Amino acid sequence: MLECYTTTMDIIVNIIVSILTAYLALTNSLATGVQYMIDSFVETEESAEMPAETLESIPSFASSIPDILLRSNEYQQAALVGATAGLSESGTNDPLSSIVNIFCTFTTEHSIRTTTGTGFFIDSDGIIMTNAHIAQFLLLEKTDAFGDAKCTVRIGSPAVARYEAELLYISPTWVQENAALIDDAAPMGTGERDYALLYISGDVEAWPLPARFPALPFDSDLLPTSVREAKVIAAGYPAKDLIEQGSAAALRGRTAATTISELYTFGSNYADVFSVRGSDVGAQGSSGGPIVNESGAVIGMIATRGDDEVDGVGSLRAITLSHINRSMKEESGFTLEENLGGDLAFRAKVFADTMSPFLLSILEGEQ
After folding, report:
1. Is the model's pLDDT at 86 over the cut of 60?
2. Which of 1, 143, 162, 174 has the fewest Cβ atoms nearer than 10 Å?
3. Topology adopted by domain 2-37+45-363
4. Helices 344-363 and 73-83: crossing angle, nearest 10°?
């Protein structure tokens, strides 16, 4: 649990802070003797009726889409029930009240790897959107074949452990392409299809859960070219304070005003990724945080750091909600909105039962 980390790991973290700080300047991923990792993946964005040649292209790995979810009758039935249940009302337009810190540990006989990332409530029933490279640890909680994985949802500033969560959805395409990198000390990637959904399953102190969570509205429409230079708000839990102070208790949620600078495509003929100019939010740990437009709706999710030479220190890249919506439909047969509803506990169990063998088979070289 978190308390174990803050007493045992703080000693180690204090020793390696100087190493991490130097390493942060060189790579999107942090890793040392204890494999202290802070998110390091990227994705692209999409744009309404814009031909692909007007967009900068990012190489795509999605040449083949696994049909593991489409072939699972149990998953399709569970998802179909959810799709007819409808979307619960969103609860806030304030990104800071909606974001959460997702803190995971992955322990083996030889190492302890910790990951800190961001997520945000996308549905007031307690559904959180975050990156797949963060949520993969919840998938690993279902098996001890690769160590002991444990994740806690933390809220507030400074962040404190508050909720337990279950995995509701993770991109099977991302799993297929990245599962072999789980044990890498410094995993890298473009961030393509780097998305997942969690749901709050309990309170760490066994208190009753809120009737509604502070969810942000979202816009999954295709983005037009005119979105360039648009004003947006970025939100997340950048790990700068954790690195400087050597304690997970130092993590604080932050928001920053910035602007969209460029659009990118994974060859989809749409903008799948956009870059935003530098801000205080632009650091490892903020992956999984929302990018909110002037209307208060989420249009993208932070996936990786950007190009600081072009967009200033603390620049970011975010995958669009339209990319997530379109890709999720392709993988599961259901849109993002249709995947937000129904009996969440049952759907999470069905998803885990479907995906865990799939993940294990990849790691064991069977696919």
Report:
1. no
2. 1
3. Thrombin, subunit H (2.40.10)
4. 140
Please choose, from the candidates 40, 38, 3, the residue with its C-alpha nearest in 3D space to the C-alpha of residue 17: 38
Q: Give the pair of three-digit tokens for residue 248.
A: 């997970």
- Give me the pLDDT at residue 118, please: 97
Q: Which residue did the predictor score with more confidence, 167 or 267?
A: 167
Q: Please state the φ and ψ torsions of residue 216, each to the nearest 5 degrees.
A: -90, 145
* Stretch among 29-38, 302-311, 327-336 having the lowest mean pLDDT: 29-38
Task: Tell me the per-residue pLDDT of 171-204, one tens digit each, with 9 for 90 and over.
Answer: 999 988 887 666 555 556 677 899 999 999 999 9
Question: Looking at the chain, how many residues does it have?
Answer: 367
SS3 314: coil
* DSSP letter (8 states) at residue 327: H
CA distance 100 to 261: 26
* Rounded Cα gap, residues 303 and 316, in angstroms: 8
DSSP 64: S
- Beta-bridge partner residues of 263: 274
Over residues 58-72, mean pLDDT? 85
Q: Which residues contact 319 (CB under 8 A, 6 or more apart)?
A: 43, 44, 45, 191, 194, 195, 272, 273, 300, 301, 303
Q: Distance between the two ends of the chain, CA-based, in angstroms?
A: 34
Say how far apart CA 137 and CA 134 lie, in whole Å.
6
Q: How many Cβ atoms are within 10 Å of 211's Cβ, its own excluded?
A: 8
Q: Domain limits of the chain?
A: 2-37+45-363
Q: Which residue has the higher pLDDT, 268 or 260?
A: 260
The CA-atom distances, in angstroms, between 298 and each of 93, 174, 193, 265 are: 9, 22, 17, 19
Tokens coding 53: 């040649």
Which of 232, 283, 235, 237 has the alpha carbon at shortest distance from 95?
Answer: 235
215 vs 245, residue with greater confidence: 215
Residue 161 near residue 154 (C-beta atoms within 8 A): yes
Q: Average pLDDT of the chain? A: 79
Residue 60, classed as helix, strand or coil, is: coil
Amino acid occupying residue 92: T
